[in-house]
Specification:
Elements: H1 13-32, H2 36-86, H3 93-126, H4 132-160, H5 166-169, H6 175-194, E1 196-202, H7 204-209, E2 213-216, E3 225-228, E4 238-241, E5 247-252, E6 255-257, E7 266-271, E8 274-280, H8 283-286, E9 292-297
Parallel strand pairs: 1-9
Antiparallel strand pairs: 1-4, 2-3, 5-8, 6-9, 7-8
Helix pairs in contact: 2-3, 2-4, 3-4, 3-6
Length: about 300
């Protein structure tokens, strides 16, 4: 037996050379790193992830900004209703100061909202996101702001005729003042909602046809009584502030309250042989059981 045949587990020189060659090739490949194709694919994936993150961030920011602008618009609408009510009757100093403050708030809300739309439009112009839906929403908000701007202008024209100064009603609040005014407006609106009351007057037939009253109780159609319909819509009623409503005009021969209110909290006041108005003597007690008052006249 030859020497080579007697050593079957030892590497032959040719095998050693092959192993060394493969090892050298692997070492060179490791030292050279990823290929150009691998690097390009990696860069493409990174860019795709960055684009997706940028898109999600943009959409999130846009959605939040849309909500803020819509909140500003709602606040302007609330201020408009309050200003319309405040502008009626005699305008004392405190009332005029409140009107000026509310208008300055509306100016600030308008300015803030339009600047936000301008900023969002610029971001969309630079982005690679499909912005058709986002641009349509911005256009809708801009149109709503234009409508409010026209409303504010008309309101200011009316106030100028009542000796308001143009520099006061046209001034803007700075950023800090606007934040404070917004907070005050939210509290004011919440207080107004808590003090809202609703009243309506009409004959029994009118109240039933409008859905205000419904018949309940009784037996086989006998002895039924009219009561406030729980499905009645607020649009049927006149909205009032319980802090300011002291009289409900009646001007009929007979009148009765259908809704429940303590008898001591009100009085039917007669003038010229008819009931002229319902006087609310104790507002807190009168509206305690219900914020709705239904007066049936005959």
């Amino acid at each position: 037996m030859s020497k080579e045949q007697g050593m079957p587990n030892l590497l032959r020189p040719a095998h050693v050379l092959m192993v060394c060659t493969l090892g050298a090739a692997l070492l060179i490949a490791c030292e050279q790193g990823p290929s150009e194709a691998e690097l390009a694919a990696k860069a493409e994936n990174a860019q795709l992830l960055a684009d997706l993150a940028g898109r999600d961030s943009l959409i999130s920011d846009m959605t939040r900004s849309f909500d803020e602008i819509e909140t500003n618009i709602k606040m302007m609408d609330d201020r408009e209703q309050i200003l319309e009510s405040a502008s009626e009757g005699e305008l004392g100093k405190s009332k005029k100061d409140k009107i000026v403050r509310d208008l300055q708030l509306m100016n600030g809300l308008m300015k803030e909202s339009r600047e936000r739309i301008k900023e969002l439009t610029a971001r969309l112009d630079k982005s690679k996101v499909d912005t058709k839906g986002l641009r349509a929403k911005l256009k809708s908000l801009d149109l709503q702001l234009a409508q409010r701007d026209s409303m504010i202008t008309n309101m200011k024209d009316g106030l100028l005729a009542s000796d308001f100064r143009i520099e006061e009603i046209n001034s803007n609040l700075d950023s800090i003042e606007l934040v404070v005014a917004k907070r005050e407006a939210v509290i004011d609106q919440q207080t107004t909602e808590l003090n809202k009351a609703y009243y309506v007057m009409g004959t029994k037939k009118e109240l039933e046809e409008s859905g205000v009253l419904t018949l309940e109780g009784g037996f086989i159609g006998i002895g039924k009584r009219a009561s406030l319909n729980s499905d009645a819509t607020s649009s049927t009623f006149t909205v009032a502030d319980v802090r300011e409503l002291h009289r409900i005009p009646v001007q009929h021969k007979k009148a009765v309250l259908v809704t429940e209110h303590p008898a001591s909290s009100y009085a039917m006041v007669e003038e010229n042989d008819m009931i002229a108005y319902l006087e609310i003597k104790n507002p807190e007690a009168f509206w305690k059981l219900s914020k709705y008052a239904v007066v049936e006249v005959r």
